Task: structure prediction
Amino acid sequence: MIPFNKPYITSKEFDYIRQTVSLGKLSANGTFTLRCEQVMQDRCHTERCFLTTSCSSALEMAAMVCDIRLGDEVIVPSYTFVSTAMAFVRSGAVIRFIDSLPHHPNMNAQQVEELITPRTRAIVPVHYNGVSCNMEALGALAQKYGLYIIEDAAHCTLNPISPYAGISCFSFHETKNIHCGEGGAMTINDPTLLEKAEKVWLKGTNRKAFEQGKVSNYEWVSEGASFAPSEINAAFLYAQLESLEDIQQRRAHLWNLYRTLLSPLAEDGCFLFPAHQGSSHIMYITCRSKRERDALATRLFSKGVTAVSHYQGLHRSPYGSRFHDGSLLPHAEMFTDCLLRLPLFYELTEEQVKYITACLGSFYLQMSIK
Result:
């Protein structure tokens, strides 16, 4: 059976975990945490990076840093993972759902302004497969209305963050290009948010100022939580960061092989194919109907290939529907019903990619005969 995903291990992870154990520092904010954060700061060209236990916790931290409160409104794409919205719901915010683009799962930036009210505090773009949303348009709206932009960059792989985003949140879940099982990071691009972020990350204390001798007492001074991962997770992640270029090259090669082999089917109108490679995080197609998507997934499974759908539009979920104002979100619903993800991971072989695409070809050939 070809799995949908297989977490890649470089082999250095075990050496670095042994090193951190020998150093006797297993809790957060040790040697490997600092190393990971420095690499990310350099790659993202950002003021500061904070390692977190997940992208979900990074988003929750962002909500605290931006002081999102009860009754504030936050604009979020419907087609995304629940954490994108839940992080702000936990702060008491009201979620305003926005539709996807007609041919891509990213939010439709041209529709954002009509959702902005005096209570709007933030826009949360999700860069599906690492393909950037229209950040210039969102940045103009943020400046015009005095809003925060908090990027859900869970699919991105540590590229320089947009100058329009005050905060970016990353994921190192085992399904991502680089991972530590469960992990994430929050980067700060707006220097005015840095001091608040330091306090929130340090559980609401002024510990950093105390260690620097700037204050005489180590005290509780703000909201905060335990967001930082253990040094064991950081040691694992550091090995992945060292191999990032190799991992990216391999995934890009496999993504492009898929594109070459699937292009004839896409050109024949069998399905919609992604126009941009993005971060090579996801290889997906968009089928013509839910029935066709489900039948294709079943056929692939019968042939030993695990292909899976992705997000369910949050506006029509049992909990998310309470925030939905009833507006039509046809493209989010289309991707919910029709998008199918194909296996893509470092150790996937070219022969397996050829086999998977051949299975798709056989399916659509049979459909055309019918």
Summary: DSSP finds twelve helices and nine strands in the chain. The longest strand covers residues 48-52.
